[in-house]
Design goal:
Layout: H1 4-11, E1 16-22, H2 31-40, E2 45-49, H3 60-72, H4 76-82, H5 86-89, E3 94-97, H6 100-106, H7 108-118, E4 122-124, H8 130-143, E5 147-148, E6 150-152, H9 158-167, E7 172-175, H10 191-198, E8 206-209, H11 215-222, E9 227-230, H12 232-241, H13 245-255
Parallel strand pairs: 1-2, 1-9, 2-3, 3-4, 4-5, 6-7, 7-8
Helix pairs in contact: 2-13
């Protein structure tokens, strides 16, 4: 299996910048405009969150954006409709991120096939059990060239990390803390955890997420991983500064000049 995520990590070993935003926020039809602006700003990877009413792993910023998106009318069916021309607009890797409940309501296999149809490269579903993925869905992911991105945290055991590494095919999402998104703004507190993962010499690269919000935290994250994922800080920027091409370019330059 080979998709745009694999190609990215083959060509670039460090300083990878991934940006997360919630589909349908700030306004219902902003999705493609934000993706295009991020692509033109030089972002390496985009994660599009599909909203859910009970986003347990997310902090208040992403929770608020998710609730607003739902109020705006966003759902998976509409998101796929918005993304149908995705690959005529951008060529960078795109990941969908959300919770298992909306995927089950849509239909897991239908969801996987639709991702392949429109050019999605991977998905992150934090509450999907690993055993469920392995026994029920893995073959469909592989048949549709779709990567399942798995998460680890400071409390994940070495045995579990090895299992996740074996079950991965793209990169591993290295959560910087056991808190919700947007927390852990002092990444130096997790240096020992980052070192421990680094010295495990995993088969797959890692990207660090949760608490990355500026150039300093992005650099710290990159010391022990291939780069970082920024979500809450970007959504705050959209709220305060708007989603113009110039505004998004300014944000990206503040993180990675």
């Amino acid at each position: 299996m080979r998709n745009r995520i694999h190609k990215l990590f083959e060509e670039k070993k460090e300083n990878i910048l991934s940006i997360y935003f919630t589909a349908g926020y700030p306004s219902l039809n902003d999705t493609i405009s934000i993706i295009k602006a991020l692509y033109e700003a030089g972002v390496d990877l985009v994660e599009i969150g599909f909203p859910f009413s009970d986003p347990l792993a997310d902090g208040p910023v992403i929770q608020e954006s998710s609730l607003r998106a739902i109020e705006n009318g966003m759902n998976l069916k509409l998101l796929f409709e918005q993304l149908k021309e995705l690959r005529t607009v951008i060529q960078m890797p795109v990941i969908l991120m959300g919770y298992l409940n909306p995927v089950m309501q849509y239909g897991e296999i239908t969801f996987i096939k639709k991702c392949n149809e429109i050019g999605i490269d991977g998905v992150i579903i934090p509450d999907m059990p690993l055993r469920y993925y392995q026994s029920q869905l893995k073959k469909y992911f592989e048949e549709n060239n779709l990567s399942n991105i798995l998460l680890i945290s400071p409390q994940t055991s070495e045995e579990r990390i090895r299992q996740i590494d074996e079950s991965s095919d793209a990169f591993i999402y290295m959560v910087s803390s056991n808190n919700i998104t947007g927390s852990n703004r002092k990444l130096d507190l997790q240096t020992e955890y980052f070192k421990r993962i680094h010295h495990m010499h995993l088969k797959h690269p890692t990207l660090t997420g949760f608490g990355i919000h500026d150039q300093e935290s992005f650099k710290k994250a990159g010391q022990f991983s291939s780069g970082a994922i920024i979500g809450s800080a970007f959504i705050k920027h959209l709220s305060s500064n708007g989603m113009s091409k110039e505004s998004i370019l300014q944000f990206v330059k503040q993180i990675r000049p």
